[in-house]
Design brief:
alpha/beta, about 400 residues, 7-stranded mixed β-sheet, 3 domains, Rossmann fold
């Protein structure tokens, strides 16, 4: 996929700089990183032609590095894939480092930006602590003992340490996800979940792992969220919404990460010196769904309301519709949301609709009035005011900077 952003200088169209974004796989996080890079290039009128190369094949990466026609590279591949290839290209490189490997000192044209997850750990801890009543905290790593996964767990552990409650960690021994090894891993995860003091607040390294936790809980007859509350990372709707109960997740701001990477690459391309620095992974917030609904009096009502809102908010439903659908009075539902620190029912409806508005702005050519109706809002003017208040810019400007045009 190529995305072109051309700027004019003295009435001429400059030759575009060829930029490569090389990342591990096609995913929502990779797409959002790309969105941020494109937005930065457009805002600064940069003549960048950005290509993406999502692959697991090192040979493909080697060919691209060796061709000699790249003007800049942003990559988040593991160090052992990238570092041996750096001498093949003179192009400036921004390396978003997620592992612990120290680069060779000969890498003169590489800015190393080591990603840290302190804010992520604090956001996860805060989400659980606001709900109260847990007897233990736990963390489930991603398969393979990856450094970024361990780092996220350490950040969460540090954030909940002040509670004095037990903290446990699950690390899968098998690095494969096939056949017998996966079955053994799931059995071990299920037994580990049973051993946790209940109710337990379990944080997963990624949404895929949070779904594994949910399946293990079902296998062992553990109720979610009453026995085990589950929170993942990335807010990937494929994993979070298409399962019952819906899974809560911390949304990381990959668009901002893309902007940070693009800004550093532009600095290098303008003659700046490479550097090494730590950057905190930006966090958007927590998308609260049924898997972390508070397990106290009224928790079942909030649980049911959040699931219904996730599925039907964009149909134009109001607070009374939510209450009717789950067979509760509106005053009681409002009370339970306040008691359990879940904001308001109207706030939950609007947050779900605003997510849909952002998706439509980014992915369609629909005008504001059409988007308003599709997302379940009744008044375009009211939506404009709410959007500006929530995100600090107009819908038109947000679309201009965030939308990716093929």
């Amino acid at each position: 996929m190529k995305l072109k952003g051309y700027g004019k200088i003295a009435g001429t169209v400059p030759k575009p700089s060829r930029i490569l974004l090389a990342n591990w796989m096609i995913s929502a996080s990779a797409q959002r990183t790309l969105d941020g890079m494109v937005a930065f290039a457009r805002e600064h009128n940069l003549a960048w032609e950005i290509e993406t190369m999502p692959t697991l094949v090192t040979d493909t990466l080697e060919v691209l590095f060796a061709n000699g026609d790249l003007d800049g590279i942003v990559t988040d591949f593991e160090s052992w894939h990238v570092f041996p290839l750096v001498p093949m290209t003179a192009a400036p490189i921004v390396f978003l480092q997620k592992d612990a490997t120290e680069p060779p000192k000969t890498l003169r044209h590489v800015s190393l930006m080591r990603i840290r997850f302190g804010d992520l750990g604090r956001a996860a801890a805060r989400h659980f602590l606001e709900r109260r009543g847990y007897r233990s905290f736990a963390y489930v790593e991603a398969r393979g003992g990856l450094f970024w996964s361990i780092n996220r767990g350490d950040a969460f552990r540090d954030a909940v340490a002040a509670t004095g409650l037990p903290f446990m960690r699950f690390s899968a021994n098998e690095q494969t996800c096939h056949g017998t090894s996966l079955r053994k891993e799931m059995e071990a995860l299920a037994e580990w979940l049973v051993s946790l003091p209940k109710p337990a607040a379990v944080f997963a390294a990624e949404d895929r792992a949070s779904r594994d936790i949910l399946l293990a809980c079902r296998h062992m007859g553990l109720a979610v969220p009453c026995d085990v509350a589950i929170l993942g990372v990335n807010d990937d709707e494929f994993f979070c919404r298409h399962v019952t109960p819906n899974l809560s997740s911390v949304a990381m701001d990959y668009e901002v990460l893309g902007r940070i990477a693009a800004k550093e690459l532009h600095r290098l391309m303008e003659g700046g010196k490479p550097r090494r620095c730590d950057i905190e992974m930006p966090v958007l917030g927590v998308s609260a769904r049924a898997s972390t609904a508070p397990s106290s009096v009224g928790g079942s009502l909030v649980n049911a309301a959040l699931e219904w809102i996730d599925a039907h908010a964009c149909e134009g439903a109001g607070v009374s519709d939510v209450a009717k659908a789950i067979h509760a009075s509106r005053p009681l539902l409002d009370l339970r949301f306040r008691e359990l620190h879940c904001g308001t029912v109207l706030g939950a409806l609007n947050e779900r609709r605003l997510r849909e508005v952002k998706r439509l702005l980014r992915e369609t050519d629909d005008n504001i009035e059409t988007i308003c109706g599709t997302a379940g809002f009744n008044d375009a003017s009211g939506l404009r005011r709410l959007f500006r208040r929530r995100f600090g810019c107009s819908m038109r400007n947000w679309r201009k900077t965030m939308r990716v045009v093929p």
